[in-house]
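Page 42, continued from yesterday. The earlier attempt failed because a stray header line got pasted into the input along with the sequence. Redoing it now with the clean sequence only.
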Amino acid sequence: MRKKSNGKAQVEEIFRNVFVLTIERNKDRREYMKEALRGIDFSFHYGLDLTKEYLEYPYVAYMPEEVFAEYDMDRDHCRIWTKGQFGAFASEKKLIQDFARQGKNENLVILLDDLVLENSWRKTLVAAYKELPPDWDALILSTRLGKAKKRAFRFIIEWKRKWDPFFKNTKKLLVKKYSHHLDCCHSEISGIFGIIYSPKGLQKLINEPDQLRKDQDDILIGKLVGQSYLNVYLTYPLLGKEGAYDGSWTQKNEFEKPSQPKNRDDVLAQLPKPK
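This time it went through. Structure tokens are written below.
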């Protein structure tokens, strides 16, 4: 009689080639991730900390040209990003490209160090992974969905949109159920704090070098989903959330965090001219 594999073994089978993106000064976050991923074989991938290394430059637009050249990023397109956004995606992009060059026919798992996992994340991951269709390219483990992350909330809003005149013109929720433990991704995904790429999905991403020069992770995935180029799903419920850890994380505010750009044209107009 074949012995049934336990949840831990199944998680280990899914979570191969796991990299946690971090920077040197986020020591507290790494301690949390070590505990949260206990039993999982993973590595920390130390990324580019522009906020620390180029403290004298208030905007990405003023960064030295060699930084954009080294990471093959489109300066005109990326100049409104915060230094944290640029450093995170440049590091993630390099990780994706380096892994793809190894020619492994295996999944790639990328987690950010500010991901806080739910207690039941292992059980949800195994269930969601089993429901993936054969042509899946990526599985998002954590993102920003707000109240729409709850299916009960989505049902109420959609019901009200259909029957209540007051809700007729409210924005339609884009997240749709695919299966019991999977949702369909949409083109307006916001923030990705954990994702698994299939070998096929990883290759598709590498085949879009121009997009990789311009768009950070959530915008990039959203565009390729909108073009029906990538088949992307979300776990339901999501495995974790952003930065809700209630430990110290004392070092994360060591440097001033720039405000998030809202509108590209407005931000560009407000940038002071270089001297």
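Notes: Confidence is low (pLDDT under 50) at residues 1-6, 244-262.
Reminder to self: strip header lines before submitting.
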